[in-house]
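Continuing the batch. This is chain 6 of the set; chains 1 through 5 are on the previous pages. Same settings as before, nothing changed between runs. Recording input and output for traceability.
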Amino acid sequence: MTTAPIEILGAIGSEPIAESTLRTLLTEAWPATNRHGEAFTGRPHTRLLVTPSHIIKLRSEYALPVGDARRFIQQMLTRERELAVHHPDKSWFLLFSEGEETPIIANVTPRLRPLHDNALLAELPPGQYCDQICAMFDVYLRVAAERDLGLDISLSNFGIDAEQRLYYLDDDIYGFDQFTSLSCFAATLVRQVATIDAERARCLGSCLRAALLRWFDDPLWVGVVAEAAASQFVAESRRPVLEALRAGLAHAAPAPVHSHSRRIALLADIHANAAALRRVLAFLDEQGIDEGVVLGDVVGYGPEPAECIALLQARPGFKVLRGNHDHAVAGGHFALGFSEAGRWAAEWTRERLSEAELAWLGELPLYLNGDGWLAVHGSPTDKTFLNAYVYQMTAEENLAHLAERGIPWCFHGHTHLARVWYQGRLGEQSSVAPEQALGEYSQALICPGSVGQPRSGKPGAELALLDLETKQLSLLRLDYDPSPVQEKMRQWGFPTTLIERLDSAR
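Output for chain 6:
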């Protein structure tokens, strides 16, 4: 039994380990290899001592004076008690060594079986193993939602006891990364766990969807995780399994758009302005154009949301994306990203749409793929597809993203500014020219402006026409009379800034 001084500072549960028990464990324990792919994984500088019943972690990377070491442990205990994800018998202590000025910060935990253990995989029925992964999802998302913190989500960092109760094994907690790690982990499961077939993957996707909605109550994040997971690399033989997981999470990816016409229309940010939309649609009828892409924000800001929805629903050749206002109105999510006037209009809109109209908005896709193009509301680098902006500070990054993915063009809205950012012979540039030859650009970010609320300083209804054969883009502005729309806004008590914006286009 070791005679080195020990100071036990507490456990997550009510009673810490007894000093005599700990001394016995320290005497009987043997060092364990701590590296990826072994039975124990983790940081190389964390020393592990193992017995058949316990794991002792010596956090030798922390060299703190005694007072600071005590404060560190008390902070860890406070946080771990609040999170309630570790085994309740986990105890923290200081181990003093003769001749050393600083103690070793350490903890001891009952030995659990990590979920990456191949013997556990072989032992547990596949259904029970999937239940444990579902429990991981729930624990991870609870901590993220309640604390804005992220656990290190991997099979190595979660383990079960003899009663198959799941606990977090790692000491470290991180800032929540908006589902990036979770999405990567979902794909890693498909890559690494051969017993997860398509049927089980679909069940896991359904479990993950339920946990996301339980803790975040916003289907946007279901789509974000589904798309991010599906974009991860897996072997071709495992791709159907990953697609099954994605299908369990969310609707299938939107089908690729194949235009049957030479010329298509690009519309964006209609914002419940039916007068402007009618003017644009009448113009397109005159031009004989019956196909187009609507780049989100059908509603918001304006007084005619139902009319605009009906006008688009009557145009089967138009593919409509979801914008941030569409999403907020469909789900009632107004907390972030809206000005006071924008939030007022979104709440007003939600109260006046039918359940069917709200469902239509909520089911609009977050992106579309076509022949050589991608369409989003916000920006191609944004994991939500609808919140970030393309402008001078982000154009270079977004163009590089398109080049990396081999996509020549991205259509987007959200900025309300008709402009093309492009990568050409002279590098990254932009143009607001009414006529542009997209064939001269290796990559291009194309915004057609706003149908219902342009912000270029020039009132009107904006759109773009694209000739897919000649690759000629036309940025257009059509005159219309906004006064009937403004009168409706006054009658409903809309904020003055929204009414006046139709005249100022600012």
